[in-house]
Hints:
The chain is an alpha+beta fold. Among the domains are: about 5-50, Uridine Diphospho-n-acetylenolpyruvylglucosamine Reductase, domain 2; about 170-260, CO dehydrogenase flavoprotein, C-terminal domain (Enolase-like, domain 1, 2-Layer Sandwich), CATH 3.30.390. Helices cover about 30% and strands about 20% of the residues. It contains ten helices and twelve strands. It has helices at about 10-20, 35-40, 75-80, 85-95, 100-105, 105-115, 120-125, 140-145, 210-220, 245-260, and strands spanning about 5, 25, 45-50, 60, 65-70, 130-135, 135-140, 160-165, 170-175, 180-190, 195-200, 210. The strands form three sheets. The protein has a five-stranded antiparallel beta sheet. A four-stranded antiparallel beta sheet has the order 9-10-11-12, with helices on both faces. A three-stranded parallel beta sheet has the order 1-3-2, covered by helices on one side. Helix 3 (about 75-80) packs antiparallel against helix 4 (about 85-95). The N and C termini lie far apart (about 45 Å). The model has no long low-confidence stretch (mean pLDDT about 95). Pfam families: FAD_binding_5. Keywords: FAD, Flavoprotein, Oxidoreductase.
Amino acid sequence: xxxxxxxxxxxxxxxxxxxxxxxxxxxxxxxxxxxxxxxxxxxxxxxxxxxxxxxxxxxxxxxxxxxxxxxxxxxxxxxxxxxxxxxxxxxxxxxxxxxxxxxxxxxxxxxxxxxxxxxxxxxxxxxxxxxxxxxxxxxxxxxxxxxxxxxxxxxxxxxxxxxxxxxxxxxxxxxxxxxxxxxxxxxxxxxxxxxxxxxxxxxxxxxxxxxxxxxxxxxxxxxxxxxxxxxxxxxxxxxxxxxxxxxxxxxxxxxxxxxxxx
Length: 262
């Protein structure tokens, strides 16, 4: 590790102000950033920790029925406290990494990082969530911009994520056993007027919606509606863990399992 400054502001305003200095970088739970610093893939002169900001922590239900989760809320807290209102989201959080990761990693950090195999981006996109920052509100459909890419501006911080609660939902993850990331993960939700299917771990472009499956499930919300339906292997990730064709096949398998589990 190299030398750098670290600040621990107690308010969002102070954090935003600190991020305006030099090449300061926000620090959530550090589950991705710290290994990145150790490998010298990033070398900011200062880190601004978001872990001591009370207004960025916690889970509540809004007056309009949205599940509101502070950006600095850990995976473990989501797994524990979201279970009553959104069991599928709580179940997703409960199977991220291992206990050490779940007790340090944060929902805001995961969504801001937008790892192509991370779980939370699928939950946000699959739920049609709204990402709240210190300056604006961003629909999940407009937030994710390809592998590790997001709509966040320099110095912008995710303060909260708001999830509309579906009638039914389920997340199925085919786990890469060493990292516990999703080799392929599918988050399916059914609302009164729509069905959403979000896929993570499969595409070179990161998390995406499978619109053909959404259309089929909107007409008939059952695994049978997906029989014979396939997704192209073009643009799918191909590595030592699985070929592009294998991942494309897993998208179909995981989607059927998620619908059946609903």
